[in-house]
Amino acid sequence: MGSDRYFRVHNARRANARRAFSLIELMAVLTIIGIISSAVFLRFGASTYQSTNAAGFTRMLMLDLNQARARTISTGDNHYLQLTRDGGIVTSYTLYRDTGSGAVVVDRIVDVPEGTLVTTATDQWAFDFDGSLGSGTGVGTIQVTGHFYTWTISVYRATGTISSSKVSL
């Protein structure tokens, strides 16, 4: 019994010393990352930021068109996206619900980001109870142009199906 204690004490290994980052080392690393990040942003600049904004705006516009279509099907009330123009340029859009006695705003006003151009022949994108686009035949399109790309959102009138394509400038 005594020999067990002897072997445990004398054959035990020392615990390895643990080393962690000091606060100064952590601050140095964060400073270097900040400098590199600012250099990258300055290198690629506002054009990359604007292109990213245009991509996000395109996704949001498609999601809101899908939301208008889904709400129309589920409630039976027509929903539509109304584009707002200022001097012929699309500046924002809003999702509305047509209750029969007037239009009610369903969601917030979404502004077009700076550096993004939206072109379309139609300012109102209304969906019927069956999910189809309100009027006309064929395909309705909305083009969103950023700094590097142009996205074309297509809405098929008969079914209300929404798709997009991206083209490099």
Dominant shape: elongated
Regarding CATH, which class?
Alpha Beta
Task: Report the average pLDDT across residues.
Answer: 86
Order of helices and strands: HHEEEEEEEE
The quaternary structure here is single chain
**Largest sheet data:** 4 strands, antiparallel
Molecular structure report:
The protein is built from two helices and eight strands, in the order ααββββββββ. With 169 residues, it is an alpha+beta fold. 37% of the residues lie in helices and 34% in strands. The strands form two sheets. It has a four-stranded antiparallel beta sheet with strand order 3-2-1-5, with helices on one face. Strands 4-6-7-8 form a four-stranded antiparallel beta sheet, with helices on one face. The chain has helices at 2-10, 23-75, and strands at 78-86, 89-98, 103-111, 117-120, 124-127, 139-145, 149-156, 162-168. The chain has one domain (23-168): minor pseudopilin epsh fold (3-Layer(bab) Sandwich), CATH 3.55.40.
List the helices and strands and how they pair.
Blueprint: H1 2-10, H2 23-75, E1 78-86, E2 89-98, E3 103-111, E4 117-120, E5 124-127, E6 139-145, E7 149-156, E8 162-168
Keywords: Membrane, Transmembrane, Transmembrane helix
InterPro entries: N_methyl_site (IPR012902), Pilin-like (IPR045584)
Transmembrane segments: 20-42
Which key phrases capture this entry?
169 residues, minor pseudopilin epsh fold, 8 strands, 34% strand, alpha+beta, elongated, 4-stranded antiparallel sheet, 2 helices, 37% helix
